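Annex B. Sample input.
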Amino acid sequence: MNLDLNGKRALVTGASKGIGAVTARLLAAEGCDVVIVSRSREELQMMADQIADVTSRSVVACPADLSRSSEVARVAEQYGDVDILVNNAGAIPGGRLEDIDEGTWRAAWDLKVFGYINLTREIFKQMSARRSGTIVNVIGAAAQIRDPSYICGVAGNAALTAFTMSLGSDSHRVGVRVVGVSPGPVATQRLLGLQDSVQSSSARPFGRAAEPLEVASAVAFLASPRSGYTSGTVLMVDGGLSARAVA
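Annex B, continued. Sample output.
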């Protein structure tokens, strides 16, 4: 399907690897010029070079720590004039309530929760002024599955789900769409770090974790004009895990 994204400008966070990197590559392949953001300068530049070589689109590497408000403001000032924002940066650790101290909890939320909210606030202002744009938040199915061994992620993802739905329910007033994608287990290095608190492969839907491209494809479609009447909703890409959890 031609997603009608040729010539669009996209900003993708957490894009040095995993879902973010694959999403940036796919958007570039669909014709977007892309700015990719991550804390790892070297990995980010390598990924930018790879995407540019494969797609021949403009790919700019912007190293930044989005857990810091000053860095969020800098990124928005330099690269905020975009048609698409994909919030994807963040890694919330596994563990039960008694396993996660306040400092760890706050640090995780500074990047994944407040990082999304703060960058959205900055980019949303610019999109509103132009009366066009799409924001896609990559959240996570933990909000629906509510596994107590991943409680920091459960609460953070629940907050971002509500944030996305609330903002997206009203953003049509200024010509902007806000949507979310919530993956279940995805075959990335991050999954290995959480393997003690997720299901074994044999217990997962279809006997496997999702591939990053499956998540990235959902992001690209929702970001595109082909999904132009979609806002204020979160798409579950989890093989049905969350549907089973709330049944």
